[in-house]
Structure formats: C-alpha cells, structure tokens
Amino acid sequence: MSFIYSNMKEFSNLLLVTPVEGSSQEPFQFIADHFDYQPESSDEDPGISWNCDHVFVIERPDDEVIRFFCIPRSCILTLRDSAGSSYHIGTSDIPARVNITSHLYRCQLVVSCKMLSNPLF
Questions:
Q1: Chain centroid to CA 94: how far?
Q2: DSSP string, 30-57
Q3: pTM (predicted TM-score)
Q4: Pairing mode, if any, of strands 114-115 and 47-51?
Q5: From the CA atom positions of the chain, what is the Rg in Å?
Q6: CA-to-CA distance for 48 and 21, rounded, in angstroms?
Q7: What is the phi/psi pair of residue 44, to 5°?
Q8: For residues 74 and 94, is the Cβ–Cβ distance under 8 A?
Q9: Does residue 106 contact residue 119 with C-beta atoms inside 8 Å?
Q10: Interval 6-57: pLDDT, tens
Q11: Who contacts 92 (Cβ-Cβ below 8 Å, separation ≥6)?
C-alpha cells in the first residue's frame, strides 16, 4: 500500500548526520546533490511502517569521515526544507543506519531506516 502526497517539499542540500553512539559528538555536515525524498509506507504484520531508505550523492568528505562511516553507524539524519523546517530520519530509539561508499570524486551517503510515522508530517 502506498500513499501519494501532493505536498512535495523542497529540501536544502545541507544534510546533518548526528551519531547516536557517543552523543557528545557534533553532527557531521554533508553537501548533497539535488534530491527528491518521499518515504514509502508499507503495511506489514506489526502494522504500518515507513521505509525511509535513500541514497544521497554527496561531496567527498575528509578521509577520516569516510573511515568513520565505512561501516553502518546508528544516526539521526536531519533534513531542512526551503521554509526552514527540520525533519528527522531516525530517532534515538530507532536510529537510521548510515554509511558512506566512496568513489573517485563523489560519495554516496546510504541511509537505511524504518520509522513508525512519516517523518515529513
């Protein structure tokens, strides 16, 4: 079952990724290429959940950051829209799994997350 919303949001290309492990760490900032993002609902045995998986193409960060995210980390991803509202993908209870795959000039920020409610509403 999938829902289509006519209320599409225009997102900023600045992504904030805050690791849940060791919460004293400041958020990582990434600059992404233009993207569209719309979580999909799925009706499973326990009930409706929202698949928030997405791959963002980002500018290549420092090698230290790439090494940190070479394995999936539990994080909260923050997106902002053009109106300045913030949307969080993942929570401290059910964090998103985030890792980076490196390419020559660009990288992919791979986000895997299921949420109990639509993060855009």
A1: 13
A2: EEB-------EEEEETTEEEEE--EEEE
A3: 0.86
A4: antiparallel
A5: 14
A6: 27
A7: -115, 180
A8: no
A9: no
A10: 456 788 999 999 999 876 678 999 999 999 888 988 887 677 889 999 999 9
A11: 20, 76
